Every structure is written in structure tokens, then in C-alpha cells.
Amino acid sequence: MQNKDLANAKNAKKDEFYTQFYDIEREVECYLDYNPDVFRGKSVLLPCDDPEWSNFTRYFAQNFDRLGLRRLVSTSYAIESKQFKVSLRTSLFEEQSPQYDADKSKTHGKIFILDSDQTGDGRVDLDDLKWKYLDGDGDFRSDEVRRLRDEADIIVTNPPFSLFREFFGWIMEAKKQFLIIGNMNAVTYKEIFPHIKENRVWYGESIHSGDREFAIPDEYPIEASGWRVDEDGRKYIRVKGVRWYTNLEHGRRHKSMDLMTMADNRKYTKHRDNPKWRFAYLHYDNYDAIEVPFSDAIPSDYDGVMGVPISWLDFYCPEQFEILGITAGRDEFDKIAWPTKRYINPIQINKDGSKSNGSKANTRATILLDTIPDDIYYIADNAVCPFQISYARILIRKRK
Ligand SMILES: C[S@@+](CC[C@H](N)C(=O)[O-])C[C@H]1O[C@@H](n2cnc3c(N)ncnc32)[C@H](O)[C@@H]1O
User: Fold this and answer.
1) Fewer C-beta neighbours within 10 Å, C or N terminus of the chain?
2) Of 205, 236, 254, which closes a domain?
3) Tell me, what's the pLDDT at 338?
């Protein structure tokens, strides 16, 4: 297999990660804390779901009355269309329904709708879900699911990992409110970062560190550590760097960070033994900004531009900081205020004198520091360059 095919196959496997009830509940409750009426009278769409297993459907159906929803629509993707083949058995629920159709069962998506009390018990909940087969396979890009998107007020899901950019664009083009879960590094995508920068999208409130557990299909090949099987035989995997993405307001994003002066940071930092600390507050060579390798080291007494790690977005309060751009070869870097010097094809000279190519991602807009450390350095444009920061950095400035 070509590298690209291998990468696609790897990503397609991650398309079948199912979100835990607790993670959904914990996140949605944050928006309710901020505004108890956030879902009142609203129509919520859960695309890329599988309502028979999905905790998204379970959570929103169980809480339909409490949230004051007008309508809940959930759609699933046909088993035959899935890239990573899962042998999901047809559920008893489906087989025992009068509308069950063996021909359509594997090739068509399904739509589940909840909008009224069908059982007559005075509540709207899971038991009141109505369902039918979709005309097509339930692809979110199909006309019929696109129409459901256009009718919805809020879109909530864990979209397929391999189509995250496309799914994100699909929501943004419809200008909908949304709450979706994905990898934290997706902020660096050129399709996503401009929205983060302009405060049209931000991280959610409840996940800020560590890893989260997702249910996976039985046939998922477990190569990595961090997985378990529960008492019912269901497999779970732990995934690092997960974040919610949203444009729903929550309270955390309006809380400012507490900052110390640069001198106090130098004195009291807990990062002293971390090799990244030696670059703290050094000025970049090709950009008018300083390096701040840890979010909790942002100095209170520096008014210029600072390069901070992506995880700083966990603390981002738009009233406290503005975002100017991002490094790591993204176009946004070039578009902001200062012209940047480019270092083409940097070559890394390792400790032992051997050479390796500099990271491709950094060749377009490499950030270089103004000191030469004694272990590794770079040669680019046939000149010795001081040092390359190989992590993406978000460029920020304190608001006055
Ligand atoms: C990451 S899983 C999440 C499922 C569910 N939302 C959850 O969290 O429990 C994404 C689902 O989207 C489905 N999917 C993949 N490609 C799709 C597409 N083009 N349109 C709709 N769904 C798709 C996958 O088969 C998978 O079931």
C-alpha cells in the first residue's frame, strides 16, 4: 500500500469511535449552566450517528423535556458505506419494527425523529422515537442530510475523524450553532484556524487535558496501550488530545488567566527542568515576538506579541487576549502585520554531526531563535540558522 492509502486506512479506523454518555452530559451541562434556555424551542440534529448505539441520541432524548427541545433528529450512515467495515448486527429493534426492510437495512441510512409523546405517558423520551430509512446512505454530504442540516438550529456530533475538515466546513457554510468533538490539533488546519482567530469558534468547556475513552467496534485491531473490555465485552480505547469545538457560549471562556511578571515567572516556574524552558522569553529571529513555551508562563508585563502552545486555547479569554496568527507554515502567518523571513528547506545538524531534513511543516515559515544552542542547529539558505521551534505556536497579544 502507498503511504497515503495507509494513512487513509488508519484514519478510517478512527471513524468508528463512539462517545461516552458521561462526556456528552458533562459538556452539554456547561452550556446549560451558562444559559439554561440554550436549547429551548430548538431543533437539534445529530448527524453521523447511530441512534441505536449513540449516547448522543440517548442523552438528548432522555433530556428532551428538561432542555425544552422542539425536535430531535438523528441520522445514521449505512453499514455498507462505512470505510472501516464493522459487522454491526441488525438490531432487534430494527428487525421487529413494521418498517424493517432487509434489502435496505445495510445500504440505507436511517433517520430517527423525536418531537412528540407517542406512547401517551405524558413525557417525550427515547420510547417516542420514530424512524424510517433514508433515501440514500446517510452521508452528511448528501442532499437529503444537507436539507436536515438547513432545517436544524444546533448540530451536535462526533464526526468521522477522516472527514473532520470537510464536516467542519459543512457546518460553517450553513452558519449553524454546533458542538462537535475532535482532535485538539485540528485548530491548526487552514480551514479551521481563521474561525478560531476571529472568535467564531472556540474549544468547549469540559475537556482540557489527559485522554478520553471511546467505545470501539469489536473488530477494531488494538495495537496501542490504553484499552479495556468491560463486563459486557464491549471494547474501549483511550484517546489523547480530544477537545470539543463549539460556537455556543460558555462561562470558562470569559474568565481571564492570572498572570505573573516575567521576573516572577523566572523565579517561581515549575518548568525549570524542562528543556523547553531554556527558550522562554527569547525573541524569534524572523518574527517580532517572544517564545512562551508554557501557557502558565505568559508574563503580565510584556505587551508585545507572544508565541504560545496550542493548548493555550484551553485558557483563551477573548476579552484578555487577541490572536494574531499561527506558525508552522500556515498562510495566516504571512498575512499578519510583520514581514517574515523565510528559511527554505532547513537541514538539521544533529548532536553527532549527522544531518537530517528539517520538518516539512516548518520550511515555509520557520521560527528561529536568536541564540545558538550547543546541541542541534539548522542550516537553511546556505547559512547557519540559530534554532528551529518545531511546535506550532499561536501568536497572541494582551488586550490593552
Ligand atoms: C466517530 S463516529 C461517532 C459516532 C457517534 N456520533 C458517537 O459519537 O457515538 C462517526 C460515525 O460517522 C460515520 N460516517 C463515516 N463517514 C460518514 C459520512 N460520510 N457521512 C455520515 N456519517 C459518516 C462513521 O461510520 C461513524 O459511525
Assistant:
1) C
2) 254
3) 45
- Domain count of the chain? 2
- Chain centroid, CA 97 distance in Å: 36
Residue 6 has a pLDDT of: 66
On whether both 70 and 118 belong to a single domain, the answer is yes
Angle (CA) 394-31-18 rounded to 5° is: 80
Using the 3D structure, point to which of 217, 237, 254 is the last residue of a domain.
Answer: 254
How far is the CA of 50 from the CAs of 53, 124, 138, in angstroms? 6, 20, 10
| 226 half-sphere exposure, CB direction, 13 A CA radius | 10
Residues of the chain with pLDDT below 50 are: 330-340, 359-384
The dihedrals phi and psi of 309, each to the nearest 5 degrees, come to -65, 160
217 and 320 belong to one structural domain? no
Same domain, 135 and 241: yes
Would the CB of 217 count as within 6 Å of ligand 1?
no
Task: Domain of residue 305: give its range.
Answer: 262-398
Q: Which mutation among 8, 13, 14, 15 tests ligand 1's pocket best, with the greatest number of atoms within 8 A of CB?
A: 15
Angle in degrees, CA 266, 277, 190, rounded to 5: 120
Same domain? 301 vs 242: no
User: Do 56 and 186 fall into the same domain?
Assistant: yes
Please tell me if the CB atom of residue 74 comes closer than 6 angstroms to any atom of ligand 1: no
pLDDT value of residue 377? 46
- Find out whether the beta carbon of 321 lies less than 6 Å from any atom of ligand 1: no
